Amino acid sequence: MKFPLIVMTVLIVVAALWAQQRSAAVIMSPASNMPSPPQMPDASHIPQPAPPLPVALSTPMQATISQVATAYEHISQFPPYSIPLSEQQTELLEPNAGATNARDLSPIGLPGELVMTLSAFRYKVGDEIEATIVLSGDDSLFTQLAPLRLFLEDDDGKRITQLTARAQQNRNEWQWQSKFDAKEAWQGSLNIVAELVLTDGAYLQQRVPFEVFDAVAEITGLGSLRIENNELIIPVQIADAEPGFYKLAASLHRADKSPLGYLQAQARVSGSGTIELTAHGMLLHTLNARQALWLGNFQLRKMPERPGPDIAWGFSRDAFYRTDEVDPARFSGEPYQDEQTAMRLQFLQSLANPSNP
Question: What digits encode the pLDDT tens for the residues 100-111?
Fold first, then answer.
């Protein structure tokens, strides 16, 4: 289950319901026509606040809240900077996955499909960009088409350059591959555009977006691990960093590379330094044996100091780094404790089970 995404979505609704419940307890007295002098009431006659009014929920909403309460009960055992990670959470395991854009051509009278795929979404200046275009169909489709045209355009639709592509014909499909390097002049949001021209002169276009950035920092490795308060501290070494405030996210994996947790941290860095990621003991005590772990899928962002400037990006020299061996026996399964989280969970459970006080 994608617990963080589910919880964050529904908690917006829950927060509104919570505010409604709290405000319902406020009693307003009718205003008098003439002001009266203040009086000190007898303590025995001070009116007590009315109990919160019940929030009426439909059966489908109550069922949804019940599911979210169960998910939130699980995820609330972990701190927000160290949450469990599963194979299904591809948005965290592949944070820089390239776009895939598929288009059914039958609505415009062509019996086929056009699919465009990029090797990544964000590229550092100098990285190789690889685009694949596949046109599938039968002979009646291909006889209506002239050669494919491929070009690059900026976010405003201005054409930047023509691209070359290597064509290959397979059974019932044509495939084109284009490889080129990200240039410094291309920094920003861009699109690769595939243009199919019909023999009658008509044409259609398909786009996939990507970004090019000039790196402001580099991840170069890991420092020595240490244990503090049932947590494993993993220093991530940063070099060539423009001075600023950085946020770092990464996935933690077992020795066999299966996902274990998603870690986040932040720190100010200038030149060289470290950002310390923290893995909670709730994650580590479940390991089946002493083992080295892997840290990868890095996202290093330099946050703007004031409104306006865009986020700047760093990169990692290697995709994954191996840690020293970690002994699960040194960690306990004691859940993370947070008062606000406990209050939210209690409120969710009261909505899911209104009959249970």
Answer: 999 998 888 888
